[in-house]
Specification:
The chain starts with 23 loop residues before the first strand and ends in a 17-residue tail after the last helix. The longest helix has 19 residues, at 281-299. By secondary structure, it is α/β, with parallel strands linked by helices. It has helices at residues 36-47, 103-107, 112-118, 134-139, 155-161, 187-200, 202-212, 239-246, 255-261, 266-277, 281-299, 304-311, 316-327, 331-342; strands at 24-29, 58-63, 68-71, 77-80, 92-95, 126-130, 147-148, 166-167, 173-175, 179-182. It is built from 14 helices and ten strands.
Length: 359
């Protein structure tokens, strides 16, 4: 849905850099009052994604409402080379958070200048927001009828302001096809890694995560707010049990076995696990098994029955059911899409013990 203000101001012409052959261009829209950390997330994550020959898979550029200095919420400004015309060349547009959204945040209305900038975006362009950047997409009508999220502290206000948006306040990010949104700050990292994974497979995304020193995957459905993300010193952690599981994904796993690793009762272990990870032990194990299946599908030619056994799903039918539920495609289709891309990449690290589930 393209915004169409009645009084759209014109902009002076600024030359746009030509796109490289076959490259996917990501344009980040820098607005006054932006958070430098969130502005840097797309450059860091997408900029580290490489093909097997070491060539960048994305081209990342930044634009403002006009070329020049853009205020941040810190004690420095940034200089942006490009104006909003650059948005017309984007395959993906990313809108990070800003603390100076004015009428966008207060009344859900675009300024003429911002509406004119968004008017450069071509139909079919993928749209991504980080934290309160979702207010911009919602005010432009891009999120109407879509599931979306934002920082948990703004979610109620967001829903009141944009009743046509299906706000999910509890998740890290949402993926509604070509419209994707994330919660606050670090959830933008999770969303960008998810996009790399969706575009180029788990091996590429895991390599980016390893180089960035972050967990390779936290599912979008994982809770934004976890009761005890870092266990208090006097309380036992479930980390050892998770590490124990990762070495035994191919085996039948019982909750009592996990609890025994931490010398806890099943009831205490289950409660503590959810407090620390935001999900149940069963959900987490299934997620790790799907992650392992992704690696085997991308990096090996193992038959489906063997992939199922190696990942603890037991049968090809069970593997198909869980992969389809998590990824929306069959294991065969996933392998066909991503195996060639991942073929000669460095072997990625295994899933982090702090990684979330995949469903």
């Amino acid at each position: 849905m393209e915004p169409s203000p009645s009084n759209r101001p014109s902009h002076p012409s600024h030359p746009n850099p030509p796109k490289g052959p076959g490259s996917h261009r990501i344009v980040v829209l820098a607005l006054a009052g932006l958070l430098p950390f969130e502005l840097g997330i797309p450059h860091r994550i997408f900029g580290r994604a490489k093909d097997p020959a070491g060539r960048p898979l994305y081209e990342i550029l930044t634009c403002g409402l006009a070329p020049g200095a853009v205020r941040t919420d810190a004690d420095f400004a940034i200089h942006v080379e490009h104006g909003p015309e650059l948005l017309a060349t984007a395959d993906t547009v990313v809108v990070p958070a800003s603390y100076e959204l004015g009428p966008v945040y207060e009344h859900g209305l675009l300024t003429d200048e911002l509406a004119a900038a968004l008017g450069h975006i071509r139909p079919g362009t993928r749209l991504v927001s980080i934290c309160t950047g979702g207010y911009v997409l919602a005010a432009a009508g891009y999120l109407d009828g879509h599931r979306a999220t934002t920082h948990w502290a703004s979610a109620e206000h967001f829903q009141e302001l944009f009743p046509a948006v299906r706000v999910d306040a509890g998740v890290l990010y949402t993926d509604d096809g070509d419209v994707l949104t994330s919660a606050g700050v670090a959830a933008g990292i999770d969303l960008c890694l998810h996009i790399v994974r969706r575009d180029h497979g788990a091996a590429v995304a895991n390599e980016v995560a390893r180089r960035t020193v972050v967990p390779p995957h936290r599912d979008g459905g994982q809770a934004q707010f976890i009761a005890r993300p870092v266990p208090e010193p006097q309380l036992a952690s479930t980390t050892a049990a998770r590490a124990w599981v990762l070495d035994r994904l191919h085996e039948p796993l019982r909750l009592s076995d996990l609890a025994r690793q931490e010398a806890m009762s099943v009831r205490t272990f289950t409660r503590r696990f959810r407090e620390e990870s935001g999900v149940s032990p069963g959900e987490w194990i299934t997620g790790q098994r799907v992650e392992r299946a992704r690696q085997l599908l991308e990096q090996t030619d193992l038959p489906m029955e063997q992939v199922a056994r190696e990942t603890g799903f037991g049968t090809a039918q069970s593997l198909r059911k869980h992969v389809q539920a998590a990824l929306g495609v069959s294991p065969t289709a996933y392998r066909r899409t991503f195996k060639a891309t991942a073929g000669t990449l460095p072997s990625p690290d295994g899933p982090s013990v702090d990684a979330g589930p995949v469903h």
